[in-house]
Design brief:
Layout: H1 3-33, H2 37-47, H3 50-80, H4 86-111, H5 120-136
Helix pairs in contact: 1-2, 1-3, 3-4
Length: about 140
């Protein structure tokens, strides 16, 4: 039983999710209110109370947990069956992460009660965030 892989995915997602929640909410806030990212980050940090941040934090935690657990369990399965784990882990983790992120982005834009059209720099920041996530696995 891969208890270590599951628990490490849980702990890792619990650590990274709060930071990424504030960053993503700030990106969406900056697009919605046409502000720069630092001003939006400041407002999101100081204006989101505990009850308001719980739903986005839960969504973000699920994104990272699903990404990390897919990476950990794929690697575990491949190593136990004498397969090279790098390509299967990259492919499965990328698929899970992109799927989870797309759901999360849709939920976060609904959180601001608007379907947002993001600028190119926002998509580049989202892509950078996803690359960091996938490479960290």
């Amino acid at each position: 039983m891969p208890i270590h892989e599951i628990s490490s995915a849980f702990v890792s997602s619990a650590i990274i999710s709060p930071f990424m929640t504030y960053i993503d909410l700030s990106l969406i806030h900056s697009q919605y209110y046409k502000e720069n990212i630092f001003s939006s980050l400041n407002k999101v940090i100081y204006n989101f109370n505990r009850t308001k941040i719980l739903k986005p934090l839960f969504i973000m935690n699920n994104v990272y947990f699903s990404t990390y657990i897919s990476a950990n369990l794929t690697e575990y399965y491949c190593k136990n069956n004498n397969y090279d784990y790098k390509i299967p882990t990259l492919v499965l983790t990328s698929f899970v992460n992109i799927f989870a992120i797309s759901i999360k982005d849709k939920q976060f834009s609904c959180y601001f009660n608007k379907n947002l059209n993001f600028k190119l720099n926002s998509y580049l920041l989202f892509a950078f965030r996803d690359i960091i996530t996938i490479c960290s696995c």
